[in-house]
Amino acid sequence: MPYLSRIRINHLRPASQRLLANPHVTHGAVVGGLAEITGTERPLWRWDTDHAQRPHLTVCTPSKPDWSHITEQYGWPDADGDHVLVRDYSPLLERLATGQEYAFRVTANPVQNIPPSQGDIAEHRGEKKIRSRRAGHRTAGHQWRWFLSRAEGWGFEVPPAPLPPTEREGDDPAAAVDLRITHRQRLAFDKKGKSVVLTIASFHGRLRITDHDRFTHHLTNGFGPAKAYGCGLLTLAPVTGNGC
């Protein structure tokens, strides 16, 4: 049974600064909230904020979590207010159907596979298969096209923007569909002594479900790569709502 959680983080704590800066540390804290992880199930998480000084962690887990260790180390364990919310995700998943539309939010890792260069071929000559190299898309245009090109495989489409054609911004293709990039970042962090670099982008917009089974599978298993590092968790809201 999947659960969706939101955990407020006290950004003034020194330990919280490391949690916010390093996705590998955050992933470890998230995994630590689960008593068991079986098979291919994995937690998904994402940093969100409703204010520059009020970050919160949104998490989708395959079983009911316990976030006591996060609130004690990084949050407000004794303060008034709802600092940790945990909700059963099943009722929402059961209501989803092909043809429904929702507002959505997701942080993803747009990547491309680059064929091996002549240098790679020369270096690995004699090997049966020389693998291509995965690299992040760096420009907003490439990231935007990457997202749209994968939507069908993820079980949804992005409908046209609500504005009539005469009010769209010229011939900008980004104005044709209801999709926008709200944040882009190059992340560099340490993982067990090795440097990891990711290019991430946050997408907001509207989607229409075209394949119920594919879509619900990815909602609980993630969209795109780098799922261990805060990418791939897509959340939904009513089209008329203000948040996702």
TrEMBL record:
Pfam name, any one: CRISPR_assoc
InterPro entries listed in its UniProt record: CRISPR-assoc_prot_Cse3
Stated name of the protein: CRISPR system Cascade subunit CasE
Organism: Saccharopolyspora gloriosae
